[in-house]
């Protein structure tokens, strides 16, 4: 793209945002990107670009545990939705989908303390299955992201930073109930000492489902009231043990076990009706992270991990959910889809500050992805395995006390190791590589203001499902799919004018090529995934926080996002609204009391080539009471509120209406 076109699109985008800010000031409110949290983040889990540890994480948006509690966010999906540039959607599997500046979960993967946790088969993750009980902060890097994340960060990365204890004994207990039979319990305890620390978190969240708006019109598959087959149950155990033998070294071992089950509400439409349930959706993880000083200038960080993903999808004949679908000789059940996926990996980062005004990091990654499918009898009918290698270099150069130059280079290699599927004579494809490069310039020469400009060339290697899935006999496999590629540009600033006022703006542009898309009728009635897509994304984000008086806080964010299909103009890009606004006001009439109002507005969105869903506006309210701190009994906080107080009937995907008006109540004891 030429400079003139690039500049014109950005100016148009900026003009649109400025007009909105002048005509409707309530459309330019924002979450703070850096807010003190009551919970200490696990520093080994933080991914940074800047060399200085006391600086903010370049341009990544951050939301901490205090804000998650303030906005009643119980899952990661609820939490990241509070940030600019992030939009939510649902898919036909009742999974919460997250888009970051138009990039989906395969292109902006999820990490815990810098360790990838997305499902290896298709690269997706259900953000409703990840609670925030053990999360100290969520980092969302957009476009320009550290090479420490490894492969597949085409549009950025989402990193969940866990907690770390700071006292000899500390913790909290969280109890909650809500509409539709929801019950939530979290217990967290931790202990920190000179040479070691430990912590444990147990969380449980159960829902009968969610209530539909009273304006919803019943259909043949949904009678209104409690959404049919929308139940879910999630439990989580997180254990962490750390050693700190001196001021420089740290070694941490974490064990995380998640067990879940859920129903899949059927579409309210007349076609593609699925009666699905997941009797289990389980994940078990073992992580090791260490940081060791080799000398006064060199340190080495190691991340090693093992993940187990086990889930079963049962497909039934009707809404009674009692008879599995059957077909074939002897009525062999095909109604059970059983997956056993495994991930093993490690990364090594060697960091040096030996050169004056430079921090150089050499990073290597190794990861294996395994996907196994079993039939209803327990026999293995599919086994795919990939190995992914990466080598990367990051160099942060302090050109001037106020100017930092950040450079990054990476090469990723996809090495197919095993391809087996009963009845499908796959051949093992060749290796393929993808290269990333990025540059960022940061200027801090103006008091309380950071200016930046970044360019990032990123890639996403195709998943196992992209290359091999025949989608129940309707697709032709394509093992030779190449990596998607994107050029991400961004300019912006972050400003803290004074203790009362902060704001930030960003203008961004992404050009994607080799996008993996479905091509119909490649052979008779069969489709195929191919590298044919070219997409352009551009827009702006505005964030704002203002506290004119001690008793009043006002803020929010606004996102303008434009996506264009350059390859096939007639094919819509779906599930992403062009405008998104989040607004909030917090009133503190007395020292112990808080009243909060939160407004979210999304514009209309295309969900198919011919169907556009209306935009919507929802209002949430909450009142909280926090008694004065008692050093003996600890700190209590009581909160109650109503989500979607106007009972708006809206949907994020066609045939899948969202929750109507629902109340909640919580009590938290920190000790």
TrEMBL record:
<protein>
    <submittedName>
        <fullName>TonB-dependent receptor</fullName>
    </submittedName>
</protein>
<feature type="signal peptide">
    <location>
        <begin position="1"/>
        <end position="30"/>
    </location>
</feature>
<keyword id="KW-1134">Transmembrane beta strand</keyword>
<comment type="similarity">
    <text>Belongs to the TonB-dependent receptor family. Hemoglobin/haptoglobin binding protein subfamily.</text>
</comment>
<keyword id="KW-0813">Transport</keyword>
<dbReference type="InterPro" id="IPR000531">
    <property type="entry name" value="Beta-barrel_TonB"/>
</dbReference>
<dbReference type="InterPro" id="IPR039426">
    <property type="entry name" value="TonB-dep_rcpt-like"/>
</dbReference>
<keyword id="KW-0812">Transmembrane</keyword>
<dbReference type="InterPro" id="IPR012910">
    <property type="entry name" value="Plug_dom"/>
</dbReference>
<keyword id="KW-0675">Receptor</keyword>
<dbReference type="GO" id="GO:0015344">
    <property type="term" value="F:siderophore uptake transmembrane transporter activity"/>
</dbReference>
<keyword id="KW-0998">Cell outer membrane</keyword>
<keyword id="KW-0472">Membrane</keyword>
<keyword id="KW-0798">TonB box</keyword>
<feature type="domain" description="TonB-dependent receptor-like beta-barrel">
    <location>
        <begin position="232"/>
        <end position="645"/>
    </location>
</feature>
<dbReference type="Pfam" id="PF00593">
    <property type="entry name" value="TonB_dep_Rec_b-barrel"/>
</dbReference>
<dbReference type="InterPro" id="IPR036942">
    <property type="entry name" value="Beta-barrel_TonB_sf"/>
</dbReference>
<dbReference type="GO" id="GO:0009279">
    <property type="term" value="C:cell outer membrane"/>
</dbReference>
<dbReference type="Pfam" id="PF07715">
    <property type="entry name" value="Plug"/>
</dbReference>
<feature type="domain" description="TonB-dependent receptor plug">
    <location>
        <begin position="54"/>
        <end position="157"/>
    </location>
</feature>
<dbReference type="InterPro" id="IPR037066">
    <property type="entry name" value="Plug_dom_sf"/>
</dbReference>
<dbReference type="GO" id="GO:0044718">
    <property type="term" value="P:siderophore transmembrane transport"/>
</dbReference>
<keyword id="KW-0732">Signal</keyword>
């Amino acid at each position: 793209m030429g400079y003139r076109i690039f500049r014109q699109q950005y100016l148009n985008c900026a003009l649109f945002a400025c007009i909105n800010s002048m005509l409707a000031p309530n459309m330019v409110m924002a979450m703070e990107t850096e807010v003190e949290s009551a919970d200490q983040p696990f520093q080994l889990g933080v991914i940074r670009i800047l060399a200085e540890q006391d600086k903010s994480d370049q341009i990544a948006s951050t939301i901490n545990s205090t804000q998650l509690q303030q906005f009643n966010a119980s899952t990661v999906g609820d939490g990241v939705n509070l940030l600019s540039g992030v939009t939510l959607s649902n898919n036909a599997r009742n999974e919460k989908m997250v888009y970051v500046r138009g990039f989906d979960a395969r292109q902006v993967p999820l990490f815990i303390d810098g360790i990838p946790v997305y499902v290896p088969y298709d690269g997706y993750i259900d953000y409703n299955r990840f609670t925030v009980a053990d999360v100290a902060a969520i980092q969302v890097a957009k476009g320009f992201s550290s090479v420490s994340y490894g492969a597949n960060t085409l549009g950025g990365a989402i990193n969940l930073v866990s907690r770390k204890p700071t006292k000899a004994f500390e913790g909290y207990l969280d109890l909650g109930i809500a509409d539709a039979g929801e019950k939530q319990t979290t217990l967290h305890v931790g202990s920190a000492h000179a040479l070691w620390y430990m912590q444990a978190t147990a969380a449980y969240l159960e829902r009968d489902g969610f209530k539909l708006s009273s304006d919803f019109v019943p259909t043949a598959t949904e009678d209104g009231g409690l959404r049919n087959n929308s139940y879910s149950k999630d439990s989580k155990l997180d254990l962490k043990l750390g050693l700190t033998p001196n001021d420089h070294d740290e070694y941490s071992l974490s064990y995380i076990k998640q067990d879940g089950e859920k129903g899949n509400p059927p579409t309210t439409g007349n076609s593609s009706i699925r009666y699905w349930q997941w009797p289990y959706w389980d994940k078990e993880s073992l992580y090791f992270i260490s940081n060791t000083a080799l000398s006064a200038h060199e340190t080495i960080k190691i991340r090693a991990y093992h993940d187990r993903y086990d889930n079963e999808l049962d497909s039934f004949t009707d809404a009674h959910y009692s008879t599995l679908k059957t077909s074939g000789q002897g009525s062999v059940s095909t109604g059970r889809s059983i997956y056993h996926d495994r991930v093993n990996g490690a990364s090594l980062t060697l960091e040096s500050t030996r050169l004056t005004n430079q921090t150089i990091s050499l990073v290597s990654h190794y990861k294996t992805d395994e996907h196994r499918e079993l039939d209803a009898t327990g026999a293995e009918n599919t086994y795919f395995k990939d190995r992914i290698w990466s080598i990367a270099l990051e160099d942060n150069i302090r050109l001037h006390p106020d100017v930092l130059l950040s450079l990054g280079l990476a090469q990723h290699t996809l090495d197919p190791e095993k391809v087996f599927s009963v009845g499908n004579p796959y051949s093992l494809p060749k290796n393929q590589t993808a290269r990333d490069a990025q540059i960022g310039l940061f200027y801090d020469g103006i008091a309380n203001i950071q200016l930046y400009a970044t360019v990032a060339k990123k890639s996403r290697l195709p998943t196992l499902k992209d290359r091999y899935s025949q989608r129940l006999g309707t697709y032709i496999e394509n093992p030779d799919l190449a990596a998607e590629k994107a050029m991400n540009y961004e300019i912006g600033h972050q400003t803290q004018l004074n203790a009362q006022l902060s704001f930030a703006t960003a203008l961004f542009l992404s050009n994607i090529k080799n996008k993996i898309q479905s091509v119909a009728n490649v052979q008779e009635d069969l489709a195929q995934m191919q590298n044919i897509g070219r997409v352009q994304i551009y827009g702006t984000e505005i964030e704002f926080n203002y506290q004119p008086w001690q008793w009043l806080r006002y803020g929010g964010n606004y996102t303008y996002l434009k996506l264009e299909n350059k390859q096939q103009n007639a094919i819509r890009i779906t599930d992403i609204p062009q405008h998104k606004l989040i607004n909030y006001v917090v009133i503190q009439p007395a020292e112990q009391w808080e009243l909060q109002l939160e407004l979210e507005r999304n514009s209309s969105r295309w969900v198919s080539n011919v169907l556009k869903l209306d935009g919507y506006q929802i209002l949430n309210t909450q009142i909280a009471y926090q008694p004065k701190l008692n050093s003996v009994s600890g700190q209590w906080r009581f909160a109650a509120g109503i989500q979607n107080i106007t009972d708006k009937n809206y949907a994020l995907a066609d045939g899948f209406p969202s929750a109507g008006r629902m109340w909640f109540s919580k009590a938290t004891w920190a000790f």
